[in-house]
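Weekly sync notes, structure subgroup
Attendees: PM, AL, DS (notes)

Item 1: joint prediction request from the bench team. They want all two components modeled as one assembly rather than separately. Inputs as received:
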Amino acid sequence: MLSSKTRLFLACTALLAVAAGSLVSAEDTDMAMLERARGVFKPLPHTMHVDDYPHSAARVELGKALFFETRVSSDGRMSCAACHNPSYHGADSLALSVGVHGTKLPRNAPTVFNTPLLVAQHYGGNRATVEEQAYKALLSPLAYGNASFAEAESKLRAIGYGESFAAAFPNEVEPVSAENWAIAIGAFERTLLTPAPFDKYLKGDINAISKEARLGADKFINMGCAGCHNGSTVGGNSFQKFGITEDYWLATGSKEMALLKGRDKGRYHDTQKEEDTYLFKVPQLRNVARTPPYFHDGSVAKLDDAVRVMARLQLGQKISDPDVALIVAFLDSLSGEVPAQFATAPVLPVSGFENNKN
Amino acid sequence: MLSSKTRLFLACTALLAVAAGSLVSAEDTDMAMLERARGVFKPLPHTMHVDDYPHSAARVELGKALFFETRVSSDGRMSCAACHNPSYHGADSLALSVGVHGTKLPRNAPTVFNTPLLVAQHYGGNRATVEEQAYKALLSPLAYGNASFAEAESKLRAIGYGESFAAAFPNEVEPVSAENWAIAIGAFERTLLTPAPFDKYLKGDINAISKEARLGADKFINMGCAGCHNGSTVGGNSFQKFGITEDYWLATGSKEMALLKGRDKGRYHDTQKEEDTYLFKVPQLRNVARTPPYFHDGSVAKLDDAVRVMARLQLGQKISDPDVALIVAFLDSLSGEVPAQFATAPVLPVSGFENNKN
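Output from the run, pasted for the record:
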């Protein structure tokens, strides 16, 4: 907290700066903007591993195989990679994802990159960690569709994963387990960091991003977007109501969906608490420029339109086209490369898998 | 043609060799086996490109992107790579493949590797080239499920492939076309050669494959397998009846399928000619050890069982377990590596694709 004296001092300084006008050099402005950015954003950490889920090279390697493995699903075609595809920057390019047996999922798939840093998984936040997400996906009728963990484990053994699990989970009596499936996949996912030009900027390399991107970051902060979209993942650390100043379903292209299917009540579906109605996890904005379409229902196809919708429905502002362009330039500076270990397909066990006469 | 004098000389030489017995050195035997192998098999060629479908680096690059592109399909999830997956050696590991909207396909997906060398595409041979296969897949209700080529072309434009098509097909008035989609995908597929240890062997490096594999190749020839499975792709160059000495559907695990769905009449479905009943393209055996399950219906899970079924139903022979092991060793020597350009996922165009509100 600032003392009132300090506040007065800062206010005077700001007034003086405005009065000085052209006396403030471009360099000062650049540094001031950088400092403001540093106040709300952080560079990505160097690792996402946590002690709760100890990892090893063998676990990461196994987790990568399992991430791409389709034979554990009830139609033999579903895998983590089906919705988190290397060709689509860890997402799937669809408005609504498609699950096992071709069933339509109720929400849009976000990118898998950097997700272990988020407050929780899924738009409703009903999975605390990526490990819990991977674990429960085994039984979800929309994801892997197994009737029991035993069924999934039996498939893993039949495919021939016994040795890989034993190497990844040494000294365990029965290493092939749904719990270890989840820990291994989590170990792999915890390697999927995507540092971006914006991180270099935050670390002091002013020219790592364009002038438009720098101005866009400043605009993003000043408009209030950074109130929710902040931290190292530029969002993903809180739940907020979707449609604060206006009704999302009436104001956007989701009207038809609201009429047909009812409104997605967000976190309410998970907590059954009235106060969670229409609350959704604030999405991270890392790689947002590479992962359209937008919002939990994929209802908006273009990033500039998504920025307009957010300004209107969350902040009650009509944003000018030049400002949209600046913010889009900033968002683009959050795009990292597809991690090499994610872009290269693993060679999966070859096995005459008796169970997959799908 | 050999003169009768020469034949007599060769016959005598053979008799002498047999009489000499232990005088024939191991090296002579090795060379004789290699010569026999060279009589029926050929190394893979260096290229699969043909003048009919001229290619360029830009075409191959575009073709790779299109191979992995899902947004052209009617459910937004189907691509060539769905059934021809880098993690499963260019196949999908399933008995029967799964098409668009989760529909079950009637047959097993073969590996895509080396397929431009085959006599035709599909088990019934109803596609003359890989290009024709890619072209017609756009409209197949089991593959991409588009209502018209115009629909597919419009999706390609909306996704943002205009420039890539223009680069790959310069000087064309409208480069984005279903025909060019097919030519580009074909150009990529024509790079997917998988040279294997057996090729080195054929070129004279005796120890490139194990002794068991060499003996297995000889056994494969002597038993008659090579009557159909020959040439550079060890099969794939003719159509043959499935079940010559015994009825396939009665003799194998496909009984149930025959009762439930009727028998797959193979090429008859494509030609409507009685003489084509139960005729199927002889599969190539390159990478067969890496691409279970086996046969057009994926009814057999293990390679050794597949060898036994073939010996029984095609040659009327009961084959000993040691001989099965030798032949499996030979077949394993036909496995090549997944081509690097296939294992690395392309980064696909990012676009707010308005049409994919699937």
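Discussion: The two ends of chain A are 63 Å apart (CA to CA).
Action: AL to compare against the crosslinking data before next sync.
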